[in-house]
Amino acid sequence: MKLANALAERSNLQQRLSELEKRLNNNAKVQAGEEPAEDPKTLLKEYDEDLAALQALIARINLANSATRADGVTLTEMLAERDCLKLKLKAMRGFLDNASAKVDRYTKSEIAIRSTVSVKELQKELDDCSKKLRLLDEKIQELNWTTEI
Known about the structure:
Blueprint: H1 3-26, H2 40-67, E1 69-70, E2 73-74, H3 75-100, H4 119-146
Antiparallel strand pairs: 1-2
Helix pairs in contact: 1-2, 1-4, 3-4
């Protein structure tokens, strides 16, 4: 199985577990004398089976991520870098939005507001960071489709 297929299967299992949880909650209580729409014991059994499958799959994915290398870097390290780049980009975009926002002055006696950074330089850094993220994500996707687990 390719790593990309395992990731898709993991997503499907997580979605199924979420749906089972909703179904369990919908059948947790009934009016006296009524029967639940679905047997909670059956749903709990399905939940436990899917949870065990998810746990095994996550372990296989994590082992593959830590064993797979490209350019001397593990896939686990690449994923951590990607997550941190996304956080940095989010923070930088918010900061840039604030730094570049215009503040209208209605009279000359109002206090002038100016940016504390060079918006142009920061935008260039943001563009470079975005490019780095795109290239890293492409490398991760390629590894996902070429790595057997």
